[in-house]
Design brief:
Blueprint lengths: L2 H14 L7 H8 L3 H4 L6 H29 L5 H15 L1 H11 L9 H6 L5 H8 L7 H22 L8 H17 L5 H5 L3 H9 L9 H13 L6 H8 L3 H4 L6 H24 L5 H17 L2 H13 L24 H9 L8 H12 L11 H13 L10 H13 L7
Amino acid sequence: MTNLDVITAAFKVWGREFYLDTSLNQVARELGVSKSAFYRHFRNKQALLDAMIDHFFDDFTAFIKTDYEKALQSGDPKGIFILIRVIAEYYAQNANAFLFSMLKLYDFNHCNRNLPEELRSRGVDFGVFYNNIAKNYFFDPLIMQCTFTTLTFFMAVFHKREKSLTNPPSNEAVSKTINTIIAIIERGLGYNGKEIEALDYESLENRVTATINDLEDDPLLKAVAGAVAQAGPWEASMEQVARRSGLSKSSLYGHFKNKQDMLRQLFMTEFLRIIDFARQGARQSAVPQEQLYLVIFSIAVYLRSKSDILVALDWIRTRRLDFDKKETKQRFIKIDNKKNGLPREFEKLFEEININPLPGADAARSKASHGGGKSGGIEDSQLVPHWVLFLIINTLMRPAGTNKIKNEDIRFLYRFLTLGIKGFKV
């Protein structure tokens, strides 16, 4: 047994138990060895984690480096898609590495490694690449963040639907998915650029901000949100909520059956409040392009005004890329039960404003309606609301903090969603 054998096993265990802490006992069982034998390779879990991170960066940069250099040397505006394609290919072929990197490396608030420096030391300097593409595109870090967040979201959808942790996807499925992701990143929802530029953003924003102060918080759920924001949903306890609310732990059971019920009520209630506020915003216009912006801005304003709720939702965003839905685990928070109206109610909000489908969605639905099976892959138009929410939360959780997120950032996000990076060509 080598160090690489241990690291490989650890990635597999992480993939199966992604929302729990990977234990050394689990890795030892995966290898079929005793824990004492394991300790001859890594003295503790932190040492193993450090080795996993180093292995990920070594493997990732080795895979993309040739195409990175090709993209860097390309004077063609399409050069950026060379890099996007090879990164998507790596993640499509390595489900465990993808999941590990999303949960451990790209969580802004919980990663203790400097990602740009790790890549730079291995010969892949994204800073140089960004400066190079600025010749063809209006460059802003948020645009690049939206680009790679979109890749992340749809790659997670792909792996979940393909059950990639146990069934490696076919080359055909990988190729089709990468092409679709490229199309989404390139042109977004495919709106008309002139119509998007013509929107009076400030006027639309004023309609929403005029109503935000009308929202009232439930004091008890606010205490739950504060506990989740501080400790995360898995570690937040009834005792923490009791201290924050000024109630005794026993009295909390008059409101919640258990911790699971407490967390479910928090997320269900907040989702419904977000939907109601966004719907109220959409009703202030009859123009589809304006309605979409009003919905996006309403969600952003709501979450920007409630930092604890935002952080609580971000915990779910970064820890529920649930490829296999291990719902038997007690620490899994199920907030999308159909009988509770979510996420169907969230999807319905976007259906009401008649937005454009994702690239390929119409063809996929047509195939399904003519007996070709259900519309699989990532072309499903019902994914749009979830993609939008994923991008909004990711944008608001940038390291600068929610108070630093300007209205202009939300406009950039909207432009990316509707036009893709093609909407930022110089």
